[in-house]
Specification:
Length: 486
């Protein structure tokens, strides 16, 4: 009964602002939905680095004096959900190092598919690693001597790594933004008070009153220093675009704009498509908050069936899938939403959620509705069935735990105890974005993986390789403790 997939991280960077740490703090606040395990900020004060990292939420970590000690007008920050390397303070980002270039810090969103292999190669050369995170290989690659100077160093580094990466890198004099050549993860450029800002999502710009300039292009490196911003094309040959379509479905905040498409509008359109593909006679459309809200609105607008917010959310529970423990996720599902029973009593109800992964949430919601006396419950899902795991930064369960990969539509309907069950089609999902299918990664739906990966590699590969599962051991101990508490 584990809840949703684990997810990716949020990255933020700012160059040339007197309140760099404070603005990074607010930026991370806006990106909290991308990772709730740990967070950190590193600033550069005339080449002197200051850093502060902790486990938990941004607001819990940066209390008291923590921010005021982060002096300097350049900063990067990170909110983490672990995908390679356990959830442990030693793996919290940004990661920092000293090398021939001086101090460097990096913040990474994504997952590197060749991390274990590159780490093997670097270790064979005698290099040491401090963490079990895939991202640390980027630090070590940047430190490698290369011919051809600074830009070449960056280019050679990104050409060695494969998979998904949106990076913010801080050196003593620069802020650098990098996006992998497929563009799996978002990364945007903004400006506030003349200072450049980088962020995973544009919602972070709104909070700090930064103006959106443009997205970092797939395969682009932007170097920001006292002379302004310059762009390096690290991959001259055109690579297949593979933006994660699941960002539009679930992950990004609805108030963000990615590739010129507002996420809210795309989700409403997904709901409209769902209504066109699967018209059902009913009295009410209700969302599973929060991720189902926009699609449910779209379904209601398209079908003309009234919309009601019958589930009320407890705001003190975050995104349930972001909890590292299975038991806590399960408990979160129960505590998170409460049904206003008399709204649905005797009614035919359409309940809309953005996705079903293991079915925990949907089953629990259908039960709530039936117990409250709903006459019929029709479950609508605003994306296609999840058939495959993700290796690009979303820790989806392996195939054996994905509901749709192991059961027919009818079996799932019966398991949920729903009167009918409908998913948005792959074409409908793409159509709702208004962008061509060739722009997207849809591997978890269609099995077409844009970058090859080793199916034997998993989140704890680095811990097993070093033989001392420092983080893993503690994660397991924590789960044990939670079991006793519940
Ligand atoms: O089939 P399952 O394994 O239960 O997973 C699917 C559910 O998990 C997510 O909600 P979550 O609570 O993580 O996020 P939200 O607060 O943004 O809705 C998602 O929106 C679905 O409701
Ligand atoms: N979710 C992410 O983007 C994680 C980044 C990196 N792979 C980590 O585990 O820290
Ligand atoms: S596999 Fe799915 S979740 Fe992973 S990057 Fe591709 S679309 Fe996104």
């Amino acid at each position: 009964m584990q809840h949703y997939p684990k997810h990716y991280c949020g990255v933020f960077g700012i160059f040339g602002h007197p309140n760099a740490a404070q603005l990074t703090y607010y930026g991370l606040y806006a990106l909290q939905h991308r990772g709730q395990e740990s967070a950190g900020i590193v600033t550069s004060d005339n080449g002197h680095f200051n850093e502060y990292k902790g486990m938990g939420l941004v607001s819990q970590i940066f209390k008291g004096e923590a921010l005021s000690e982060l002096t300097g007008n350049m900063a990067i920050g990170h909110t983490r959900y672990s995908t390679t390397g356990s959830s442990h303070i030693r793996n919290a980002q940004p990661l920092t190092g000293n090398c021939r270039l001086g101090r460097i810090a990096i913040a990474h969103n994504g997952n590197l598919t060749n991390a274990a292999q590159v780490r093997d190669e670097l270790e064979a050369q005698g290099l040491m690693f401090q963490t079990t995170v895939d991202s640390e290989i980027v630090l070590n690659l940047l430190a490698q001597p290369t011919l051809g100077g600074h830009d070449n160093n960056l280019i050679e580094t990104v050409r060695r790594i494969e998979g998904a990466y949106s990076l913010c890198i801080l050196t003593e004099r620069e802020l650098i933004g990098v996006r992998d050549p497929h563009g799996f993860r978002p990364l945007s450029i903004g400006k506030v008070d003349g200072a450049y800002v980088l962020a995973s999502e544009t919602c972070a710009f709104d909070l700090i009153h930064a103006e959106f300039i443009r997205d970092v292009e797939p395969g682009e490196i932007v170097v920001i220093d006292k002379n302004g911003l310059r762009s390096i094309k690290a991959f001259p040959e055109h690579q297949r675009r593979a933006f994660c379509i699941f960002e539009y479905v679930y992950f990004a905040r609805p108030d963000s704009t990615i590739a010129d498409r507002n996420v809210y509008k795309v989700r409403v359109e997904m709901g409209r498509e769902l209504a066109r593909e699967h018209p059902v006679k009913a009295d009410l459309v209700i969302p599973v908050p929060d991720s189902g809200n926009c699609a449910a609105l779209g379904y209601s607008l398209e079908s003309g069936i009234p919309f009601e917010m019958a589930f009320v959310r407890n705001h003190y529970v975050g995104r349930s899938f972001l909890q590292p423990s299975q038991l806590i996720r399960d408990f979160d599902v129960r505590v998170k939403l409460n049904l206003i029973g008399n709204l649905v009593k005797g009614k035919r109800v359409i309940v809309v959620d953005d996705s079903i992964v293991r079915g925990t949430t949907s089953k629990s919601r259908v039960n709530n509705l039936k117990e409250a006396g709903a006459k019929e419950v029709h479950v609508m899902v605003s994306c296609p069935p999840h058939m495959n795991p993700c290796v690009y930064g979303i820790d989806f369960p392996d195939r054996s735990k994905l509901m749709a990969a192991n059961h027919s539509l009818e079996e799932i309907r019966q398991y949920l105890n729903a009167d009918s069950l409908h998913y948005l089609s792959q074409d409908g999902m793409v159509k709702a974005t208004g962008l061509p299918k060739s722009n997207f990664c849809m591997a978890c739906y269609d099995g077409n993986y844009p970058v090859k990966y080793d199916s034997m590699v998993d989140k704890h590969i680095m811990e097993r390789r070093v033989g001392k599962p420092h983080g893993l051991g503690e994660e397991l101990k924590k789960e044990e403790l939670q079991k006793q508490l519940l």
